[in-house]
Amino acid sequence: MCRYEANCIKDIVGKISSTLSSQITNINEEFVGIETRLQDFKSKLEIGSGGVRMVGIWGVGGGGKTTLASVIYIEISHQFEAHCFLKNIRDESSKYGLEKLQNKLLSLVLKKKQKLVGSEIEIKNEIKRRLSEKSVLVVLDDVDDLKQLEALAGSHDWFGEGSRIIITTRDQHLLSRRADTIYEVSLLSNDEAMKLFTKHACQKNKPVEGYEKLSLDVVSYAGGLPLAIEILGSFLYDKDKDEWKSVLAKLKDIPNAKVTERLKISYDGLERDEKNLFLDIACSLRGWWLSNAMRVLDACSSHPRIGIRVLVQKSLIKVTDEIIDIHDVIEEMAHYIVREEHPNHPEKRSRIWQARDIDEICAMGAETLMENNHIEVLTLQSYTSSLPSDVIDTRLPDVVANMKKVRWISWDNYPSSSFPKNFEPTKLGCLMLIRGRQVRLWQGKKLLPNLKILDLRGSSFLKCTPDFSGVPCLEILILDYCKSLVRIDSSIGYHERLVCVSMKACAELKKFPSIMRMKKLETLDLNGNFRLLKRLKHLDLLGCDQLEKLGSDFFDKECCLEVLSLRVMDHKGLKIIGWKLPQLPRFLRKLDLSNRNLGDGDIPSDISGLFNLQVLYLCGNKFSRLDSRLSRLLCLKLLNLSWCRKLVELPDLPSSIAILLAEECKSLQRVGDLSCYKCLWKVSLWRKTNKLIGGERLLYSMLQVNALEDRFMSVQLPCEPFKTSTFSDTRRLITLQLPHNWYNDFSGFLFFANQIARWGSGFCSIVIRQEMTMNSQPDHDQWEAFDKNKESYEHSLVGYVPFSSLRRTPCWNSTSYTNVTFQIDGQDMANPKIGLVPRRSAICECSEFWDEGNVSNKTFDIIVDPKSTNVHIEWNHGFGTDA
């Protein structure tokens, strides 16, 4: 090729590239918010990396999937030998069949009309034969069936080297079968949504003056969904303010038909059970914890295990941080679907969730009330009737009694009327009457054969529970904070299926019925005859103020109880203080005997036989000494003696002890040598006044022996009170130059401070950031020397963070750190200093390190933020309030 020809080709390529670049810029300006999404998606395609990649674009209907695919197609299609964009595959395949789409695919790619004939396998092989040698770009838009993918992009080897196949769909599950990666389209931000809305509604880049608030209302309703924003914006164009207000008011009850029609495609593609599940969630369960919602749906036989996953995959709901959420517009669509079942007859609809519908039903005649047997779900978060109270009291019982098909009733502040005699919905699986005003739920025995959950928490007027003999499937009974509850019906003791009974803070309850057959019970928050409860793992009697005793044989020898709390909240006037403690279950891992007025010699003798015990709380008791039996608890990791104000010396401890807490022990004058406890890493002996003899020696020995390479350390000691704080708002930054070879010569950072006062947060936040040079920090500080003189350890608060704990943070790069700044934020602290601990030749393994994070808040928490170059450490040096 001569130089002239080469230059001509170069000019042509340059002009084409310039033209394409101009077109792409115009396209990007046309579609609001497309630029960032375009760049993110292009990275998924890995253009130029070779191979064949199938990449899915997944998201809610109307979320911009096709738009994104169209823009990327225009931008990169010229880089391939051949390309095609198959639109609306869902509609096209249902109307004309897959064979026509297969012919269309080949015709567009090969730029020549094709007519494939033969069997299904023969046609697929022909597509593979003709395309496997070509680098192609294929976009398959709006795929909703796996058969469509199998017919049009059966496998990677159908296409030549460098090919890229883009698939848009609302169903994530389809992509998991074929796609190499999936890109979820994000909805528009508030700024992007406003820009798109004003473009369609005002033909401008900002709202028309005087329409700003109305524009915000529309954008808020649309929730970042491009489809809804464009349709509503175009509809409101050239309308006046009154018309805008009218449209917004109407949307609360009747969503826009065009938006609903597009979104309803995903709903129409569901199976019948999945549709019912979606409507249950959209009408009643938005914002619920997933675990609680699953429990209710299971009780109502809605089969949520697989169904919820399907709804997430089809972008109809989201589960974020274990909480169920749903887009506002999709929620409105669901409400519209239910209302359209019978627009003018709420009594004939499948679900009721608004008080006005209940009021309308109650206002109907007696004959009409008989027709409300279509209602399956009744959920009212807070009920305030617009009808006179006498009408509600008279009509409401009949309304509820006629709901023969109801599966779930959830009603906050249910009125005072009891359920009538004919209230026996055989399909009812869950009955939740939170903060109800009933004195009695119902009279006599009721046959509710499928009721699994009965939740009456906060029913402060309830005097007694109903007869449970007609509810054989009951699994969960919640009576928390029923402060007037006096009696539990004896029939409860015969329920073999009960798994959880919760009766927290039922202060008037004095007796729990004898337990005869509750063999599956796992959680119980009240007393009774526990000898048959073989599976019970957790028992907490906190707040059971009127219980008079627990027999010595309260627990069976084969009891598997692991967590037992006999803690008392307050000493005044409680019968529980005088108990003689029962024989303790031998498999206990955690025992709380706080505030039980225990004196010298009152610790149960059988405590030394608890060989699995890891956590022991003895806070707020009256003993002055503890005998040596505690040293026999060979698995004990945490001992809390805080607020034992008569305690004069610490007991002998087992070698396994990791955490020792004895805060506000005012009679404790000295602390002995704890250096023999090699696993000990956290000690808190804080009190407001008086230093502790031996505290400096304790701190010195722990720094020498216990501050290991792979173990944290936290020590809190009392000190003399400070008159003023030297830790002012301007003195929270400490900038230091790291010694040469610091990472190899030292094992971790030390944080020193004096605590001025406590019963603040007991919490400190430390941020470590790298500085490029010390020249920018002329007033730098000095390292605190790791002095071996034990009398120099005057600090009341010391924390040690090993370098090894920071390796998990992406930003921690030991080779690049030479100068660092420490930002320390903590309440009531003075004289903060930073030190380094020299590395010792004998390094203990961290296998003995016991982290209390499963008992309470972690002492040290390394916060990982991939977007930050800083190291963030949260230090909780107190024992907290849950001990």
From TrEMBL:
The keyword Repeat applies. InterPro entries: Apaf_helical, Disease_R_plants, LRR_dom_sf, NB-ARC, P-loop_NTPase, WHD_ROQ1-like. Residues 37-205 form the NB-ARC domain. Pfam families: NB-ARC, WHD_ROQ1. Residues 272-340 form the Disease resistance protein Roq1-like winged-helix domain. Keywords: Leucine-rich repeat, Repeat. One of its GO terms (molecular function) is ADP binding. GO terms for biological process: defense response. PANTHER family: LEUCINE-RICH REPEAT-CONTAINING PROTEIN, NB-ARC-RELATED. This is Uncharacterized protein. It comes from Mikania micrantha.
